[in-house]
């Protein structure tokens, strides 16, 4: 069974409050999602392996550490996942970025895939699949299926807010994929929206309705 981590860092929780607030406009919403994504990337990369190197400081030689050449890949689920990419890239600028395009059919709530483009060396990369919302879990399960079908072996899922129903579905379908969240909310409503959630992430990020 995969693990679920909820990041309780005060800065993440503080910013998430304003992301949720319906009076927060598009510009501020976008900036806050970007900032929280960066803070979450800081937490999610805690276990990256380090290697010892020797460098010269102005004072003399020093043994120090660098990240041991792990190949990382980010995969935002379009559209709303795009809002988290730049924040993460600020901390991990060398990461390659793939894209999986999915939308949730408003009637059936089933994900419909319309675009996939991944880095060529899929098998060697550790991927972080990104989406602000994990609601029924259909989109995340489908995106991870899509990556696995193309050879990806190593993945984490990072979302701002999840519903317990979505977490359970992802854990059942992909017990090898750990889930990283800023909040685990109460439930889904009858339209498949997370309660209390933040509303429609794509619409709030891009100003559509
Ligand atoms: C939203 C969200 C997730 C999905 C979550 O995308 O960004 O991808 O819904 O719901 P699920 O867990 O029930 O699948 P949406 O389908 O609204 O598409 P958009 O990002 O293009 O707006
Ligand atoms: N997609 C969203 O954008 N918000 C939700 O609450 C559920 C799915």
3D architecture notes:
Its cofactor is Mg(2+). Uracil binds at residues 194, 199-201. Keywords: Allosteric enzyme, Glycosyltransferase, GTP-binding, Magnesium, Nucleotide-binding, Transferase. This protein is of the alpha/beta class and 209 residues long. The chain is built from 6 helices and 13 strands. The protein has helices at 10-20, 26-44, 85-91, 138-149, 164-173, 201-206, and strands at residues 4-6, 50-57, 60-67, 72-78, 96-97, 99-104, 111-117, 126-130, 133-134, 154-162, 178-184, 187-188, 194-195. The strands form 3 sheets. Strands 1, 4, 5, 6, 7, 8, 9, 10 and 11 form a 9-stranded mixed β-sheet that branches. It has a two-stranded antiparallel sheet with strand order 2-3. A hairpin with a 2-residue loop joins strand 2 and strand 3. The protein is globular and about 65 Å long. The mean pLDDT is 96. Uracil (URA) is lined by residues 133, 135, 192-194, 197, 200-202.
Main sheet specs: 9 strands, mixed
CATH domain fold name: Rossmann fold
Order of helices and strands: EHHEEEHEEEEEHEHEEEH
Helical segment tally?
Answer: 6
Compounds present?
1-O-pyrophosphono-5-O-phosphono-alpha-D-ribofuranose, uracil
Q: Percent range for helical residues?
A: 25-40%
Q: What is the CATH class?
A: Alpha Beta
- The number of distinct β-strands equals 13
Number of domains: 1
CA distance, first residue to last residue? 37 Å
CATH architecture level-2 label: 3-Layer(aba) Sandwich
């Amino acid at each position: 069974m995969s693990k679920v981590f909820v990041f309780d860092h005060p800065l993440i929780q503080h910013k998430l409050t304003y992301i949720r607030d319906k009076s927060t406009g598009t510009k501020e919403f976008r900036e806050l999602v970007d900032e929280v994504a960066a803070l979450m990337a800081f937490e999610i990369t805690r276990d990256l392996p380090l290697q010892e190197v020797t460098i010269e400081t102005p004072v003399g030689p020093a043994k120090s550490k660098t990240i041991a050449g792990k190949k990382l890949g980010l995969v935002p689920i379009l559209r709303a996942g795009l809002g988290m990419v730049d924040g993460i890239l600020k901390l991990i600028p060398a990461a390659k970025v793939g894209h999986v395009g999915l939308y949730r059919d408003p009637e059936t709530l089933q994900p419909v895939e319309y675009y996939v483009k991944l880095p060529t060396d899929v098998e060697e990369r550790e991927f972080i699949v990104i989406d602000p919302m994990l609601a029924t879990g259909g989109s995340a399960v489908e995106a991870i299926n899509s990556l696995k079908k193309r050879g990806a072996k190593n993945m984490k899922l990072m979302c701002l807010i999840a519903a317990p129903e979505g977490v359970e579905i992802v854990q059942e379908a992909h017990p090898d994929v750990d889930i990283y969240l800023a909040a685990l909310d109460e439930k889904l409503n009858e339209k498949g929206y997370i309660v209390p959630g933040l509303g429609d992430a794509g619409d709030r990020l891009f100003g559509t309705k």
